[in-house]
Amino acid sequence: MNPSGLRRLLAALLLGLVVLGLVLLWSGQQAQATTDQATIDQAATAVMRLGSEEGFLVFQPERLTIAAGERVRFEVGGLGPHNLIVDSHPEWSHEPLSFVVGESWDQQFDTPGRYAIWCEPHRAAGMTGEINVVAAENATE
Ligand SMILES: [Cu+2]
User: Could you tell me the residue range of the domain that residue 60 belongs to?
Assistant: First the structure.
């Protein structure tokens, strides 16, 4: 092989490696995107806000129906501090006060039932609600 042929071969090889690298990078990003979506889906089924954007002391929505085993994301929507007390279920409650709008936590509800909820600082002001957990086989999508 003459020197110019060798140079062409090396150039072709290098180009091949670059293309292969780009394809691997792209497929890696696709896999990452899929994983992120799965994490979101698993993270929370429904969102309940604590405090409205306008500063009202309410849960939004006030009542939520979910299937047993699903997760709810509780998110501070406005004017805190808020917390979450689930009647007779300290293990599902979130007693620490949340001050920052956008602050959130997820809670899974495994046992069917109707659970009264309230915000401790604002219970007297009417910040109460309900989480209705239905058996998974009775849940409609
Ligand atoms: Cu509150």
Answer: 46-138
Distance 56 CA to ligand 1 centre (A): 9
User: What is the CA(131)–ligand 1 centre distance, in A?
Assistant: 16
One domain, residues 30 and 53: no
Examine the domain organization and report whether 91 and 61 are in the same domain: yes
**pLDDT for 25-57, tens place per residue?**
665 555 544 444 444 455 678 999 999 999 999
Tens digits of residue pLDDT in 80-89: 999 999 999 9
Q: How far is the CA of 62 from the centre of ligand 1 (A)?
A: 13
Average pLDDT over residues 88-102: 96
Q: Judge if 52 and 39 occupy the same domain.
A: no
> b/e for 89-128, b at 16 or more Cβ within 10 A?
beebbbeeebeeeeebeebebeebeebebbbeebeeeebb
72 CA to middle of ligand 1, Å?
17
126 with 69, same domain: the answer is yes
